[in-house]
Design a protein that fits this description.
Blueprint: H1 8-21, H2 23-30, E1 38-42, E2 45-48, H3 49-57, H4 80-86, E3 90-93, H5 106-114, E4 120-121, E5 124-125, H6 128-141, H7 150-164, H8 174-183, E6 186-189, H9 202-211, E7 214-217, H10 219-227, H11 229-243, H12 250-256, H13 281-298, H14 314-323, E8 349-352, E9 367-370, H15 372-380, H16 384-404
Antiparallel strand pairs: 1-2, 1-3, 4-5, 6-7, 8-9
Helix pairs in contact: 1-2, 1-3, 6-7, 6-10, 6-11, 11-13, 11-14, 13-14, 15-16
């Protein structure tokens, strides 16, 4: 699935079909519910944005319509609605969030995680909620049960807060869990009293001790963390870049099982073939949207280590390596190593065509996967300037062909 393949022609065909069938019959025919928030406005009529885009996909040669359950297909502001706006259509937001205030879609849930509101102490962001989310992400990545009794959650998070609360966090798991529940990203079950807020001290602890709820990540978030490497890396980029600046999160990541998530070595898992980590166009498009959102906030920022290196995106590196399908992206490559890594992955290095220190973007449209020899030529070869021109064109073309469409504008300086 690639929304970028759809043009105004297919959208207008879907609109015409909706007019011919009528809204109710159109939605029933394609299996969609009425939109609660984002409506496409066209020539005086209003149409359900997600349903129109889903139906339009079926007008592409050799393609089928998208369904509400198509992986990676959302009607939220960052997907179908934004895509329609890119095509020049008017989209209006009416009423509550797309799936209702208590049932936000995947994009909205991930937005809530990447825009966490946390307490501050001595001008630093507290690590309670990031630690809880990283622990839960690691469990989802390993395929462990989503919901746990409170005693197990409390014991696990208490240890993590004691060992890795690098800004003086107390071993009180009830604070972050209550707050994440009210953020809408943590589910609590089997309690009798209304869920407490995260404010206060004895009252919060008393509520959890009395109610002993089962809990865990909201199901759609858990499933995304479990099955989507792009989402895991994007959230990891956000949490580490936002909350752990100036700190070393490696011991925490090791303990929660996330230290081994290396974008240069996609995790195939036991018994899986390397091809399984190749991304669909929809996943590539979603990943680029997450990269662009973070890029807009972090462009020009540098880490706080002694080298002051620009902050780099794990997600962007993963997208480029996946896009390469295991082959050097230099069209003039004379051959790459026939050998592979211990995990049967090709020996490739992801590189920025234009260095970040020279104003380049940490974005797949300006990054390439190169074999070690081509990387060396691009970096210090006599023909490096000519090769960089070629690679910049190749990166843009590969990006568009993979589902990214035309590369979005860089962040404003």
């Amino acid at each position: 699935m690639a929304l970028s393949d759809i043009s105004r022609v297919e959208i207008e065909k879907a609109i015409e079909e909706c007019d011919r069938l009528g809204r109710e019959a159109f939605l029933k025919a394609y299996g969609f519910r009425p939109a609660r928030r984002y409506l496409l406005v066209h020539e005086g009529g209003q149409y359900d944005s997600k349903a129109i885009v889903g139906a339009a996909h079926g007008f592409l040669p050799g393609e089928l319509p998208l369904t509400p359950s198509t992986p990676g297909f959302s009607g939220g502001a960052d997907h179908a609605a934004r895509f329609l706006q890119r095509l020049g259509f008017d989209v209006v937001a009416e009423g509550p969030a797309e799936d209702g205030p208590d049932h936000p879609d995947h994009d909205e849930l991930i937005h809530r995680i990447t825009h966490l509101k946390v307490n501050r102490s001595a001008n630093h962001r507290a690590l309670y909620k990031p630690i809880a989310l990283l622990w839960a992400m690691g469990r989802a990545h390993r395929g462990e049960p989503r919901l746990l009794p409170w005693t197990e959650t409390e014991a696990a998070l208490k240890l993590l807060l004691q060992r890795h609360g690098l800004r003086g966090e107390r071993p009180r798991p009830d604070y972050p869990i209550a707050s994440l529940h009210h953020d809408g990203v943590w589910e609590l079950r089997d309690f009798t009293e209304p869920v407490t807020t995260a404010h206060g001290d004895a009252r919060v602890k008393r509520w959890f001790d009395t109610n002993q709820p089962r809990g865990g990540l909201a199901e759609p978030v858990h499933e995304l963390f479990r099955h989507s490497a792009v989402t895991r890396l994007a959230v990891l980029d956000e949490l580490l870049g936002t909350f752990f600046e100036g700190l070393d999160p490696t011991p925490l990541l090791t303990e929660v099982g996330l230290a081994g998530i290396d974008p240069a070595e996609p995790d195939t898992g036991a018994g899986r073939t390397p091809e399984r980590w190749l991304l669909t166009a929809a996943e590539y498009e979603r990943g680029c949207a997450l990269v662009e959102e973070r890029e807009a906030r972090t462009h020009g920022r540098r880490g706080t280590g002694t080298t002051r290196r620009p902050i780099r995106s794990r997600t962007a590196r993963f997208l480029v390596l996946s896009r390469s399908r295991g082959r050097c992206e230099n069209p003039d490559c004379t051959g790459q190593p026939a050998d592979v890594t211990d995990d049967d992955h090709p020996i490739l290095e992801v590189d920025h065509v234009v260095d970040l220190t020279r104003g380049g973007r940490d974005h797949p449209s300006q990054m390439v996967a190169l074999c070690p020899n081509c990387h060396a030529v691009k970096t210090r070869g006599r023909t490096r300037e000519a090769l960089r021109e070629i690679l910049l064109r190749v990166a843009s073309e590969r990006h568009a062909d993979s589902g990214g469409g035309a590369a979005g504008p860089g962040p404003s300086r």
